[in-house]
Amino acid sequence: MYDVVEPCSDSGAYRAEPKEETRIDLAALEDFLPEKDFKIEFSSEVILLVNHLKFDVEVGIYPSGKLLFKTTEKEVVDELFDEFTEMVKDFKSN
User: Fold this and answer.
1) What is the pLDDT of residue 47?
2) 3-class secondary structure, 6
3) Using CA atoms, how far apart are residues 50 and 60, in angstroms rounded to an integer?
4) Which is it for strands 6-7 and 14-16: parallel, antiparallel or unpaired?
5) Nearest to 72 by CA among 8, 4, 18, 3
6) What pLDDT, on a 0 to 100 scale, did the predictor assign at position 82?
7) Which CATH architecture has domain 6-89?
8) Is the distance from CB of 24 to CB of 15 less than 8 angstroms?
9) How many Å apart are CA 35 and CA 45, to the nearest integer?
10) Are 59 and 68 in contact (CB under 8 A)?
């Protein structure tokens, strides 16, 4: 579903973008994430910011399916990416 996770230009985060046009139901995902060890930091129609409590990493989730992992630790990003790839599939709205 996603292209390769790659560092952002400022190297303070990693991003992943869907290979195909995607729409994520952020409201439904927001209700689900606390069950999976995520704390909701901010929610709007354009972004859902969550913090993974185990890794203390902020993740931005966009309606387009784009993910932004605010960390420079590639191993953590890989683990979170796998987790999000599975979860996001269940919240596609198209």
Assistant:
1) 96
2) strand
3) 7
4) antiparallel
5) 8
6) 86
7) 2-Layer Sandwich (3.30)
8) no
9) 21
10) yes
Residue 35 identity: E
Along the 94 residues of the chain, how does pLDDT read in single tens digits?
666 576 776 668 888 888 888 899 999 999 999 988 899 999 999 999 999 998 999 999 999 989 999 998 889 988 888 888 888 778 887 5
Place of tokens 């995520």: 38
Contacts for 42 with CB less than 8 Å, ≥ 6 apart: 48, 49
Residue 93: both structure tokens together: 């709205």
Q: What residue has token string 């972004």?
A: 47
| Residue 81: predicted pLDDT | 87
Residues in the chain: 94
Sign of CA dihedral 94, 86, 48, 40: positive
Helix (H, G, I), strand (E, B) or coil at 82: helix
Is-above-0.90 flag for pTM?
no
